[in-house]
Amino acid sequence: FSAVLTSAYTALSLYIATQLVYAPQQPLYATPAFFGMQFHRITFPSREDHVQLRGWFIPGVLPGGHLTAQRTIIMVHGDRTNRADQGAGLLKLSVAFAQHGFAVLAFDMRGAGESAPAPLSLGYFEQRDMLGAVDFLRSGPPPYPELGRPHVIAGWGVSLGAVTLLLAAAKEPAIRALVSDSGYPDFASILEREVPKRGHLPPLFTPGALLAAQALYGINFYDVRPVDTVARIAPRPIFFIHGDKDSFNPSTNMFVLATAARSAPDAHVQTWLVPGADHAQSFNTAGQQYVTRVTDFYNLALGPDTGKVSGS
User: Fold this and answer.
1) CA dist list (Å): 28 to 57, 173, 253
2) Class level of CATH domain 32-187+226-302
């Protein structure tokens, strides 16, 4: 009888692990052209494991209508969405950044949108996608050759995208400034809640499902801990944003991350608790105030656009 129970536990753990790491890839609802913006479609590999990723490069628009790629922001979406995520307003925000003179690289992480199918790992592998975007900007074919390469690269991420960005920036100094919106210090508490929900089974199956994910897909979810590495980002500036009504990831987690980031002696950290905003809804809630505060942060962190083109 015990062998039957063990077999059943193992089978159900494998089932939950598969539910955790695979999800239908959501189609894009629109492109930047919907907002009257120029853009090019791009394809590039992730760093290390070379998963093929797809995205858009949207040049920034300067006063007078001139285009620029000098200051480029890499946009990183949340879990089980894509680069045009309507729920968090990603496409609209990307366009707003471009209209304020920042070029934007918006891409789909592995297993999402138009990118290659791959297991979802809550940032464990996705950080390689962010690093691949940096590599593309530094050494790939420039989407607009006449605009050259970026002088500076920054990042913006929401929810899982914020975690992915924080993990990547701790390894990659080329990411010069970061906005982390609705990020997590670690995934332990989230996993304990979400694994049973996604598998429709009791919590006792959570340890087995996480072991199965590691055995089958090489994913150690408990290693996804930006709180342990965020201090390495200093002295590069970080702007943490969180909704005070976040029902999924408590706003106290923003302060956990900010405290860890400030433990570096040369840290430059800002925080903003957005009144009335639920999870990943700070832009939708604060609107133009969000755009103003974030672009002010990037302008201060990255400096002005000089109007000069970098060589390719």
Assistant:
1) 15, 31, 30
2) alpha beta
